[in-house]
Structure formats: C-alpha cells, structure tokens
Amino acid sequence: MDGEGIPDFSSLKEETAYWKELSLKYKQSFQEARDELVEFQEGSRELEAELEAQLVQAACSGSYWVLPSPGTLRDINTGYFLFSP
C-alpha cells in the first residue's frame, strides 16, 4: 500500500475510527465471500452425487452415453465460429 486514498487525520481517535470501520467492512466482505463459497461447495457436492447416481443407474440399465469424437467437436466449434454473429 503506497498511501494513496488514505485521508489525513486530525487526531489519533479519528484515525482509529477510520481503520476500525475499514476493518469491519473487510470482515463483512470476507464473511459474505466465505458464505458464498460454502454454498457453492454444497451445491457442487449435491450435483456430483446426482451425476454419480445417474451414472450408476445408466451403467446398471446398460445404456451408456455416447460422447462425440474429437473430430466432431472440432467440426461443431468450427461451425459455431463461422456462423455466430
């Protein structure tokens, strides 16, 4: 930090209040980001479990997904870029 954006303080009390308010702001931002991360991780675990269940079900029923070959994917991507606006 090079000191840009930090106001001049007329007293130690004013400076202390400034830094305390700033730290509370960053703490709140951190907590919100942490909560979002936890929510994302929970959603990811649920999705993973659902996909795993679908894969097991497909394996048991004998139906498997057919993935396109790399050449097919290349053709699809080429067509997309040629005809996209």
TrEMBL record:
Any GO MF annotation of the entry: microtubule binding
InterPro entries, per the entry: NUDE (IPR033494)
Domain of life per record: Eukaryota
GO biological process, one term: regulation of neuron projection development
GO CC annotation terms, alphabetical: centrosome; kinesin complex; kinetochore
Alphabetical UniProt keywords: Coiled coil
Family designation: Belongs to the nudE family.
Family annotation (PANTHER family): NUCLEAR DISTRIBUTION PROTEIN NUDE HOMOLOG 1, NUCLEAR DISTRIBUTION PROTEIN NUDE-LIKE 1
Name by which UniProt lists this protein: NudE neurodevelopment protein 1 like 1
Gene encoding the protein: NDEL1
